[in-house]
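The passage that follows is intended for readers who have already worked through the single-chain material. We present the inputs for a multi-component assembly, then the predicted structure in tokenized form, and finally a short commentary. You are encouraged to pause after the input and sketch how you expect the pieces to fit together before reading on.
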Amino acid sequence: NAGVTQTPKFQVLKTGQSMTLQCAQDMNHNSMYWYRQDPGMGLRLIYYSASEGTTDKGEVPNGYNVSRLNKREFSLRLESAAPSQTSVYFCASSVDYSNQPQHFGDGTRLSIL
Amino acid sequence: QKEVEQNSGPLSVPEGAIASLNCTYSDRGSQSFFWYRQYSGKSPELIMSIYSNGDKEDGRFTAQLNKASQYVSLLIRDSQPSDSATYLCAVNMGGGSNYKLTFGKGTLLTVNP
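Having made your guess, compare it with the prediction:
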């Protein structure tokens, strides 16, 4: 089983460019999440989808949009990239939106020049 | 603001020793607790879940939970150099539909051969 798969693994963008980060899970999980991780800041939740058809803002949603395409896939879009969005992005999933652990993908390292 | 606090470290222990990692949380109503291991440049990997007061053992790892004192700890027995990583404490601050997994910033553990 692949678990949670993120693409791409690395990306360099110029300020103002747009990009979509892809995430897919094969564990039949209902809930999916997008985090960013910055040095000294820990993991911060950007958006989440408690179940197929729903999405909600997390702690740091500004500058991002998401789409829960189906039960397996949850994408994160940067409409107009800014240097402050340089970070490592992790997608995660969990069985449901309750007391269940989250399982992470390998991450996308995004640099915005 | 609901918080999860960890000592940032680095915590340095000799090979074969017991490493003790601590975490405190601010929400007395928290119901589920997780420890993740994150190697440098990699994604967080779930190593322990604990839901009830007391100890939970899995191989060389023991998670300890004390809800009255609002702390959770991770003990690693017979520490190995391969245990060198950042350990993230995650707490579900709120139950049921108010699920919110909050991560600490992590403790860097170094095991010296």
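Commentary: Chain B has a mean pLDDT of 93. The two ends of chain B are 40 Å apart (CA to CA). How closely did your sketch match?
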